[in-house]
Amino acid sequence: MSSTYQLPYGKGFKELRLDTAAQVTLLRPAAVAGAPDPVATVEAAITHPLGEFSLTDFVGVRSAAVAINDKTRPVPHNAMLPPLLQALEAIGLPPSAITLLIATGTHIPMPPETFVQVVSPSILERYPVISHDCDADDLVALGTTTRGTPIRMNRRFMEADLRVVVGNVEPHHFAGYSGGVKSGAIGLAGRDTITANHSLLRDSRAALAIYADNPLRQDIEEIGRHVDIHFAINVVMNDDKQIIEAFAGDPLAVIAAAMPAVRRIYEVEVPEPFDVMITAPGGYPKDINLYQSHKAVSCANRVTKEGGRIILVAACEDGAGSAGYEAFMARGFDDHAAVMHQFVQEPFRIGPHKAFIFARDAVQLERIWVVSDMARERVERLLLTPATLEEAIAAAIAPLPSTARIGIMPYANATIPVVAR
After folding, report:
1. 191 and 272 share a domain?
2. Are residues 310 and 187 in the same domain?
3. Is the predicted pLDDT of residue 121 greater than 90, yes or no?
4. 23-26: strand order across its sheet
5. Per residue in 327-336, pLDDT tens?
6. Residues 162 and 281 in one domain
7. Which of 28, 109, 204, 220 gets the most CB atoms within 10 Å of its CB?
8. What is each CA distance from 416 to 20, 160, 273, 321, in whole angstroms?
9. pLDDT digits (tens, 9 = 90+) for 269-321
């Protein structure tokens, strides 16, 4: 039987053609229409906040700082920021007193000429916009979490009278879910804070769609309490990156309300694992580099048989996305088991941790093929198999018997696959 599918790839698509007698299942989030007026949807959330505070309670403050996401996150700032900025001006803050902080985490700080990739020119002309630097020498120390994470935060954020975070809530492969305080608590933190927090990903409970029992996510919440983030605005989007719902108010109340909506839309149940999973992160910017695209492998691996095969389809226009990841792999490991063994012998480091996460998935599989724009030898150095889509299909699927099961996840980063119990 022959069938055709569209896989998001960069800012376009790749056409997947399968000619197989094997059973093919498409796994994707529920088809939910976007809000007819996304700006009005965000505005309504701000006007009717969750929790005990509204922005009108902050009348008289002299400054506000707003954490926004960098270019690697598909957050619809053009719909979210105008009603927020209007509400902040309505409580008496002039534009010069409202600073937008691009929450880069450990990513390279964005140079000013690239800010237009995350906010509109009209906002850039009117409000101060600064990119966070996790290695800045003026970060503010705020103590240590109960799990031992030292807390150091962006000074401009901490010195503001009103601290706001903006983001989206979707499944996250080791934080459980994005959203809530995360844009500020991690996105505006120092490297040592993020490193210590992310070291908790080695716990098996630091996994997709796990929140209350996830030590890494709960450490993030504790960081947020130390930072005292006052207000959050989060949206839930469909796989066309359209806003479905918006939530605003107390960050804990926001994520508590958003998570059930995420599960209703993104959770997909399957009767049993697959022999082969063809997975794509969901297009730009989720497949901007291999560092980000790995999340699609992690999601797919949840419903792939042990010893199965995964084909990752991701443009990776920015390459691997982490010099530390590539440098660690350049040591020349024979296999993924050796990668895992070496990683746990050394202090935890952001960047090389991606080698560990890839290896943790890969050791359960026969092979991971990578269909991307990266040079083949660069992919091979990462112990992955470079291929065109046609080559990957021929190698992974053609030899399978008719009884095999093939899964396709075109929007894997926004899919929670679950094997029925």
Report:
1. no
2. no
3. yes
4. 23-26, 405-409, 274-279, 304-313, 365-371, 385-386
5. 999 999 999 9
6. no
7. 220
8. 26, 37, 14, 24
9. 999 999 999 999 999 988 999 998 999 999 999 999 999 999 999 999 999 99
